[in-house]
Amino acid sequence: MFPERGVSTVDRPIEQVAALTGASTRMLRHYDAIGLLRPSRTSAGGRRYYDEAALRRLWQILLLRELDVGLNAISDILDGRPDMAGGLSAHLESLLRERDRLTRRAEAVELLLERLEAVDSALDDLGRHRELINRFGPPPPNLPNWPPELGELQRRFAALAKGFAALRIAGIPPHDPRARTIAAAQHEALQRFWPVDAKLYVELAEFADDGYQREAVYAYVAAMSATTVRNSSSCSGLTK
User: Fold this and answer.
1) Which of 44, 72, 99, 160 has its CA 20 to 30 Å from the CA of residue 122?
2) What is the pTM of this model?
């Protein structure tokens, strides 16, 4: 692209300035309209040209825009109202206030999410309680504070679940006597709240998300059933 006759080679047309700086021609025309960046000259046909001083000012504008400084503030800074350091200090204070506002808003959103999660958890617990009651019948009548009494069972189950997890991490198979011992303790804890026999315990194990725990329950019940069969056989032999 060649400059028009009579135009200094240091004057750049608006299209070239846009390509050089990344600012669109529309943006440059807007800056001209608000008096932020005047072209060094305009041709008879209305084409804008920018000299080196205008180009330096444009780079300063773009830098300040990257820092999220408003156009009015940029105009004040570049025109010495106040000096650049003072203008940037004022902008920094504004950014810090905005940061504090966003921090407070983020904390409020986090609190709201925590409350929503608590509500969802309570609804999930209620749904599980109803499912258990529908499937296995109501709890024994000696639990007047149902379902708050379930909290003790949940804490006990959580502690036993850690035991299952430790065995799984250690590579101990779920049919190992140590895993069956934890399953037996879980069954015993559950029986304090429900008259759960072996069959119902296996069905309850289906609610567990942990496959290792389910397998340990199956192994425990199988071992318990085998022991019952052996004991029955022994008793039968004694009565003959």
Assistant:
1) 160
2) 0.38
